Hints:
The protein has 383 residues and is of the alpha/beta class.
Amino acid sequence: MTATIIHSALLITDGVRTADAWVQFDGGVVKATGAGDSWRELASAAGPDCEIVDATGQTLSPGFIDIHVHGGGGSANEEGEDAIRNVIATHREHGTTRAVLSLVTGRPADLLGHLATIAALTESEPGVLGSHLEGPFLADEYRGAHDPEMLRSPSPAETAAMLAAANGTLRQITLAPELPGAEAAVRAFVDAGVAVAVGHTSATFEQALAAFDAGASILTHTFNAMPGLHHRAPGPIAAAFQSPHVTLEVINDGVHVHPALAHLVFTQAQGRVALITDAMVAACAHDGDYMLGSLPVRVDAGVARLVEGGAIAGSTLTLDAALRQTVTACGVSLEEALRALTSTPAAAIGRGHDLGSLRPGYAADAVLLDDELHVKRVWVDGV
Length: 383
């Protein structure tokens, strides 16, 4: 594996910016970092096979991590290994170096098969972090783009079957904590090391807070598919604000959440926001007719909605676009916006020890951005 030195960059990692910085990759990890001209001595010692990248005028960030993505490039995660590879490649062009692959509500046997497919790919594809079950344990009232015929309450048998099929690679499950059997399911998933997310829920403030107290640690796409903030019924969003261990996902495409409310989330939950795409098959594709699970979707001007009922059906967002929206439209600092794409989502799924930072010893995943925050180069494991 060829060593790489990227120099003269504005390095932003872990919420801190360093001017005229350099980073050295070797063996798939970050070997050293520094500032100024000290990289030259390392380059000389590394020999002619070391790639030298001049990043003058550009920003270097850890690779983006998307913990909630359903598809892209015309492919969906439910369509098998080749489709998933296309999804990963599509989003990698926009800075996503690692992704948790989300699955929509489906039949039990189908979901177990998809979990097994993703489990196998997690071993062979460095961009795949594991799976995210967005359903089927969701509230009908806030089901969004999930098939109402397939929604159900959790049972110990199905919970155990999901964990077995995923074979240790289920990273996240979204569920409605007010459903019968949800309390036991939260405990079972948390005990198995799965991050439980509250979402697609009609939960009250008290119900959501109880779920967070029981170990749930993510709020799925904040503001979407849940009761909003109300002065007498604060709901799950206020419960997440009040719970310091909870990560709040945000789909910041200018459609799902108003910029003022996106800014509010960053203010009220500083360091706890994870920007996600919730992207479906049409991301980086074209307007037209698609399927999201078993439901027909129409994409018009980049906005995906169910053909029947018109509910928003995921997004066509990429994480670099979410970054630009967060900084330019929402007034969030570049340091905080990049943290929401890197170290925060890594920590949310238990990978804060080796992903989401460009500190020595971490995976050599990086994104080089121009001054308008467009992606110029991407590295995964130093490649």
